[in-house]
Amino acid sequence: MDQPAIEIRDLHKSFGDLEVLKGVSLTAHPGDVVAVIGGSGSGKSTMLRCINMLELPSSGEIAIQGEAYGLHPARGGGLEPIDPKQVQRIRAQLGMVFQNFNLWPHRTVLGNVIEVPIQVLGVPRDKAIARARQVLARVGLAEKEDVYPSFMSGGQQQRCAIARVLAVDPLAMLFDEPTSALDPELVGEVLSVIRDLAQEKRTMILVTHEMAFARDVASHVIYLRDGLIEEQGPPEQIFGAPQSAHLRQFISSVV
Amino acid sequence: MPDFDTVTPLPPAAKGDFSAMFRALLLPHRIVMLAIALAGLSAMVLMMNWSWLPAYLPKLGEGLLMTLYMLVGSVVMGFLLALPLALAQVSGPAPLRWLALSFCTVIRGTPLLLQLWLFYFGLGSLFAQFPEIRGTWLWPYLRQPWPYGLIALTVSFAAYQGEVMRGAFAGVPNGELEAARAFGMSRFKVFHRVWFPRAVHRALPTLAGEIILQLKSTPLVATITVTDLYAVITRVRQATLLTYEPLLFLVAVYICLSAVLILALRWLENRVPTGH
């Protein structure tokens, strides 16, 4: 078997006295599409944000493509990176799509997509632009490259955010509830782009509330409850034959 | 002259559509007001005494240069000084934050005129007492009044602008910075590519106002014998015994300078449309 693209071992995370993650372990191999579901406050987003160190774990270990983040105890409790450069290097190989898009509003669509390749990866400008046009065409925004994000719909902005991730050709993509901030009629266009990427066998971790979509694209589903993995397995099993009472109740409440 | 027209809706004019803008001026009451303004202006030109103007033009030019020099110098240096002041308050360690906050509060809480005099009469005469300073290459500058004017204006602008930039830095949505970090940007890159440009853009409307205020603060340097435009005009008034003509000339120059500044900054602001 390949080296896991993402490996999380016994991840704990507390905010003050509140323990949000109570020991989560997860392995995603290249090509896996891991859907993370669970109620609000279950720790799904926190877990995702620990993968690229936007949240620092309180304890536990995270490795990307076999390389573990070097962490040591911080003064105020918890962990902090030993070498920020290592964190930056690993982050550059992970693409994250946010719930609120978080595009850079002072740059055009093209400017947003070429920013990281040029500024972080050191790709020459003309190559970055050529690549950006390819990925923009893939997400259906070829005509929009000179538009500023605030002049686009939420669905277009989120597709631009996905193009921004594709431009760096990441080892794995992290989706943090990518359709939760969208108007219902715009959800479909974003999901279909993500579905394409999943079929391409891109590694992704997908935190989502779209159960039908998770069932459809995921190769593995994780149900988080109160900071612990309560149940996990292939989507047919999770959605077809849920074992735990909580999961059964959760599925019937959202579907 | 106040514009009483607050009720009549303007005919819709596209940006840059000059014929439409011109038509908007042709409403009857506007024609009357324009005529009054024109009559006033021609009365000033024809009935007042402007014979002194040609002789003083070179001096006035020098004065204008000094005014511009004070304005541009203090705005540029003040802005550069404002950045660390703002950053210290937004994300600095407690002692630095406290230091920057007290600097801004003290400077903003005292009259600029007072600061100017403290720098010139205080610092200026203090420097003169040390032979070590009098011997250095700095002395030819430090014995003149303009460095003290420039320092006082710079410090004042930095304090006000530091406060503006503090708000602007704090107001950049965290998600945009988080996205930059999530893609592996270093702290400096995040600042240079996202945080700083976004903050400046947010602060531009306020910055424009502050620069205009700064322009109107520059005449204060005349009180420490810097010969800016205002000082030249004061000399003209003393020499010619005229009161209104030199002052009206001064008004015209400051209005023109303000107009140019406003237009330039608005152009800058419109270069990046953000829609919110």
Present the secondary structure layout.
The complex is a heterodimer of chains A (255) and B (276).
Chain A lengths: L5 E10 L2 E11 L4 E5 L6 H8 L7 E6 L2 E2 L2 E3 L5 E3 L2 H8 L2 E4 L11 H11 L5 H14 L15 H13 L5 E5 L7 H16 L4 E4 L3 H7 L2 E6 L2 E6 L1 H6 L4 H10 L1
Helix pairs in contact in A: 3-4, 3-5, 4-5, 5-6
Chain B lengths: L17 H7 L3 H20 L5 H39 L2 H15 L3 H17 L2 H4 L4 H4 L3 H26 L2 H9 L4 H31 L11 H12 L3 H27 L6
Membrane topology (chain B): Multi-pass membrane protein
Protein name (chain B): ABC transporter permease
GO biological process, one term (chain B): amino acid transport
Describe the structure in your own words.
The complex is a heterodimer of chains A (255) and B (276). Chain A has helices at 44-51, 84-91, 109-119, 125-138, 154-166, 184-199, 211-217, 235-240, 245-254, and strands at 6-15, 18-28, 33-37, 59-64, 67-68, 71-73, 79-81, 94-97, 172-176, 204-207, 220-225, 228-233. By secondary structure, chain A is an alpha/beta fold. In chain A, the strands form three sheets. A six-stranded mixed beta sheet of chain A has the order 8-9-10-3-11-12, sandwiched between helices. The longest helix of chain A is centred in the C-terminal third of the chain and has 16 residues, at 184-199. In chain A, 48% of the residues are buried. The mean pLDDT of chain A is 93. The two termini of chain B are 33 Å apart. With 276 residues, chain B is mostly helical. Chain B has a single domain (52-269), classed as MetI-like (MetI-like fold), CATH 1.10.3720. Classes of the chains: A alpha/beta (255), B mainly alpha (276). Chain A binds chain B through residues 52, 54, 84-85, 88-96, 98, 100, 102-106, 115-116, 119-120, 148, 150-151, 164, 168, and chain B through 173, 175-176, 178-187, 189, 193-194, 197-198, 201, 272-276.
Outline of this structure?
The complex is a heterodimer of chains A (255) and B (276). Chain A has 255 residues and is α/β, with parallel strands linked by helices.
